[in-house]
Amino acid sequence: MTEIELKEQGKISRLTNKTFQFDKRLGEGFFSANYFLKSNKIVKENEPNHIVTMQWFQRRDDSKLCGVDEAIALLHTFAIHPEELVIEALNDGDIIQANEPVLKVTGKYENFGFLESVIDGVLARRTSVCTNVYKVMKVIGDTPIFSMADRQDDYQTQIGDGYATYVGGIAKVSTDAQGYWYGGKGMGTMPHALIQICGGDVCKAADIYLKTFPEEKVTALIDYHNNVVRDSLILAKHLGHKLNGVRVDTSKALVDHYFDDKDTSDFDPHGVCKELIFALRKALDDAGFDYVKITVSSSFSAEKIAEWKKAGVPVSMYGVGTYFVNNTTCGFTGDLVMLDGKGEAKEGRANYPSDRLKKVPYPIY
């Protein structure tokens, strides 16, 4: 049983440093801003043993927090004498407001201060992804959705981003890496490349897919020829009930050939537009293929999905990528706010009170 499954059953309260596979160079300062390393050395040699409190917060209301468990595990792994630190924290998945502290660490600065910028980045990345997913989940209703964010950033972001996506509310992902921390597996069927290898023959691509994976039904990308209504009908007639669905992924730079002989003066026909999906659904239904599902992808955001839901666009599933990970929603700041039990912070900052923070034991596993 994974730690995520245990967490969901209430058997453990947090993910631990058994979950996260940290690069050992984190403890050597390789990923820390250099001026933190210099400050650590200066304090250690000239002003050691002061007890400080550092707090982390961000500036956006209604955000969904993620990265706290990872930050705690990082402190427990790389801080000097982590057992001496007092750590107070919220939980991954908590809804937070602007300026609300999510993490406080009290101890000797020279024992953990060099990790400040690393924790900033962990909290910012995870919470941004989690919040972007959360914003989509608030408008998606009961329509299924999956994350295609694996292709939107460096592959090394997939594991952490996938976990943040899961905390935000989406378990369907494209790669096993995205599901690694919560025990999920990647999903998907046919890329454009398979159609290209078949000389642009969507039916042949579907046939060899089924030959290789006979236990699965096909969900086929259908915009290869930029004629999704025509090609969806051709494929549906060819496969019958072996066709689970079609995915429309038309580039925003193109106008589907369905509109070649139609007036588009009162709407923007570029890319995956509402009018194209309404036309596709009607064509499939009229031909007796009402069981064929329609998945859409390409440049979908929370705002666009909300607009489509309001318009009643007949979408069976949304695929979202760029919006989840290339949109830094929540930037975190770590500040020293207490010195030897007394308030001490730069102007404009203070030790913000919170009755939501909970003390974290050491160790937590």
State the name of the first-level CATH class of the largest domain: Alpha Beta
* SSE arrangement, N to C: HHEEHEEEHHEHHHEHEHEHEHEEE
Q: Within the CATH hierarchy, at the fold level, what is the topology of the largest domain?
A: nicotinate phosphoribosyltransferase
Helix content: 25-40%
User: What is the global morphology?
Assistant: elongated
* Number of helices, counting only DSSP H or I runs of 4 residues or more: 12
| Radius of gyration over C-alpha positions, nearest whole angstrom | 25 Å
Major sheet: arrangement of strands? 12-11-1-5-3-13
Task: Using the 3D structure, state the CATH architecture of the largest domain.
Answer: Alpha-Beta Barrel
Question: What count of domains describes the coordinates?
Answer: 2
The protein's oligomeric status is single chain
Main beta sheet: strand number and arrangement? 6 strands, antiparallel
| Whole-number mean pLDDT | 92
Distance between the termini: 15 Å
Per CATH, the superfamily of the largest domain is nicotinate phosphoribosyltransferase
